[in-house]
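Researcher: Dear colleague, please comment on this protein.
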Amino acid sequence: MRVREKGDRGVVQSVILFLGVSVLSGALAAGLAMPLAGLAGFTTEQTYKSIESLPQKFDEVTVKAKSTIRAADGSVIATLAEKYRTPVTLSQIAPIMQKAIVAIEDDRFYEHGALDLKGTLRALAVNQAEGSVQQGGSSITQQYIKMSLIEKATSVAEVQAATASTPQRKIAELRYAIAAEKQFSKNEILEKYLNLANFGDGAWGIQAAAQHYFRVDAKDLTLAQAAMLAGLVKSPTAYDPTNNMKKAKDRRDVVIRRMLELKVVSLNQANAALKAPVVNLNIVRKTKVGCANSPYPFYCEYVVAQLKDNPAFGKNEKERSDFLKTAGLTIRTSIDPKIQAAAQASIDQHSRANDQAIAAISMVEPGTGLVKAMVQSRPYGAKKNQTAYNYNVEKTYAGGFGGFQIGSTMKAFTVAAAIQKGFSINHKIASPDTIDLSGKKFSTCDGTTSAPKYTPSNSTKNVPVPTMVQAAQKSTNTYFLLLSQQVGLCSIAKLGASLGLNNAQTEEPLEQVPSMTLGVDYMTPLQLTAAYAAFAARGKFCNPWVVTSVRDANGKAVKIPGQSCKQVLAPEVADGVNEVLHQVMEPGGTGQALKFGNSDLAGKTGTIQKAKAVWYSGYSSSLAASAVVADASPPYETLAGQTLNGRGVNDASGSKTAGPLWETAMRAALKGKPTTKFTAPTDKTRRGDTKELPFINGMNPEDAANKLRQNGFEAAIDPTPVNSEEAAGTVAYTDPRRRDGAPEGSLVTIYVSNGSRGNNNGDNDEDGDENQPPNTTRPPGNGNGNGGGPNNTCPPWNPKYPNC
C-alpha cells in the first residue's frame, strides 16, 4: 500500500471527485446523514451555488491546549482549560495507535482523496435499507474538518451549523476536506485529527486520553490500550469505560478484530489484546480543571487574577481568560509547597473550618517579594463553613475580602518614619496611661488634622517615660500617638505608601488622622507581610510576586511583569527598626513567648478596637509572615465569646490569639534553614540624627515658636498650662526636651507655665548643660559614659556626647 503525501493529488482530480459526488442525486455529498427522501428540493443549482460560495483554502484551527500552573518546585497545582488537551506530534504517538484509528475509522485513508467513494456507497446502501443513519461515510479528513469547525465555533449557532444534518453542511465539509488534502499531507491530517478528537470523560486529544485512562504517554500505548481509545471516537460517551465497562470492551474488541481482519496485527497479538483488561478504574485520573480543583485554590485564583491583568494576553478580561485556558501555557509560580504545608499545618493546629472566627496567614521572602504561602481556616467552596473569599488579599482581586484594621502593627511604620527622620531608637516621651488629644493638631500632607474629642488610653502596663524600644515592647499607645505627632502623619503616610500600603478595600491612601499609628486602615495579611519583609531586607521593598515565568506551548518565554523591588529605606534605618521590633520578642516584650530558635526574630502585635481582629506580624532575615484572627461575618463583633479551634475566645490579643499561628508556621518553615542575624544599628541610628534646640525657657510662647521655626523645627503651643518656676504665660519647657535635641523638621511642642512652683518632674532644668565647653565629648562624671550622678548622665541619644 503506497502512502500518498501532499502534492500527490491534483486539483483537477479533487474538483472532479467533488462535483461527481455532489451531483450523485445530492445524496453522497450529504454524507448520508439522512435517507434520500430528506434531499427533496435540494437542486443541482443550489449545490453549485454552495460550491461557489465556499473558500478554496481551509484555515487551520488553532488547537486549544490546557495550561498548567506550577509551584516553585515544578509540581502542578492547577490546570486551566476549556478542554483537557495536550497536543503532540505524530512521532510522539505510538504507531499501533495510528494503525488502530485508521483501521476502525477509515482503513483506506492513505489510498483515497478527501472522499472515500467506495465507503460512501457502502454506507449509502446500508442507510437506505434501514431507513435511517446506520453507518457514516466520512473519511478521517472529513471528520477532521468537522472537529475543526466545532473547535472554531464561538457560539451555539456555529456549533449547530458545524453538526447539522443538512446537505449544505456536508457539501461545505467536503469542500473544506478537498482544500485540506491539498494543504496537508496524510500524516499531518492524522496528527491533527488525533489531537482534536474527543476520547470521552473530559479527555481531548490522544496524549490527554493516554494519560487520563492509562497514565502513560501516547507514544507508549499498547495494542489493547490503542484499540480501546480508537473505539471511543465513534461515541465518546457510550463507549466510555468509566460509564459502561462492557460496552467499552465490546467496542475495543471490534477494533482489535478489524485490525486482525486487515492484517495490521497477528492472531497471537489480537488474542492477547482481547484478553487484556480494558482499563484499571483505580488509576483513571479525574479530569479536574480550574482553581477550584487546586490544592491551593485561593492562591491559584490570585495567580489567575494577576495574569488577567496582563494586556499581553488579550485586549480585555474575556480574551485573557480564553487565552489562559487555550494557549497551552506553563505558568511557574512562587509558592513553596513545603512552606505552604507549614502554614497550613499551623492553621489546622490552631483553628477549625467551622469556627466563628477566621484565621489567615501570608508568608513572603524578604528581598524578592516571592509569596511563599497563603492559607486560611475556611476552605474554598460554597457549602457550609466554606467560602469563596480570600482573606489574604485586597478587594480588587477576584474573591479578595479586602483586609481588616491592623491595630498596633501600624506602629512599626511610625518607628520607621521616626528613625528615618532622625529620631533615636531611645527617644523618650512621657506617656501617661491616658492622654487628652482633643483638638490637638497633627500635621498632614495637606495641612493639619485634629479630633474634637479624643482621650486614648494604653491597653498594657507601661513605663511612665519610655524609650522607643520600651514603648514598642509594651505597645504603648500614648507614646506612639505623641511620637506620630512629633514625626508628622505625612511622613508615616508616605513611608507606608512606598511599602505598598493602602486601603485594601478602596485602594485609597492611608488615612491621616490622629489615631493613624493605632491602625485605622484596612489591610491584608499579604500587604502587611510584604511591608514587614522590607525591614528584614534592610529597607528593600518588593511588591508581592507570584508569577515568576510563563512559557508558551513551544517552550518560548512569554513576557510578563517580573520582580519589582526598590530601596525604600536606608539600610541603617531598617536596621534601627529591626532592633526595635527585635526587642518586642525579647524578655519584657509582648511577643517574648513567640521567640524560637537561634535566628534573630522581630515582630509586632496588633489588636483593633473591641478586639474584632488581632494580628501578629514578624520576620527573620529570610522569611516574613503575618497572621490574623478576625470576625469576617457582618455585623462584625468582638472576638471575645466567638469560637477559635472549637473553643470560646476569652481575651483576644495579638500575642496570645494570632501569635501562636505565626509562631507555629514560622518555626516549621524555618526548620533546617541557616541561622540568620540582623545587622546591628549604627551608633548614629541609636543616638538619632538630632539637632540642638534653642534655649526658649521663659520666652513669650509665640516668640519661642517663631525661634524654633527659624532653627528648622515645626512648633506647636499646648494650651493647657503646666506647673513651672517660669513666669506665668511664658515657656515652661518643650517636648522633646532641650537636653535631648530633636531631628530637624520635627514637631516641638511648647508647654506654657502657670507660674506655680509645684512638682514638674524636673522639667525646668533646661539649662543644666548651658555652660558646657564646646569640645566636650564626654559629660562630667566617672569618664565611662555613665555619668557621675543622677544629674550627670550620658544618654546615648544626646548629640552633644558622640562618644557615649
Summary: DSSP finds 24 helices and 20 strands in the chain. Confidence is low (pLDDT under 50) at residues 1-44, 132-136, 760-804.
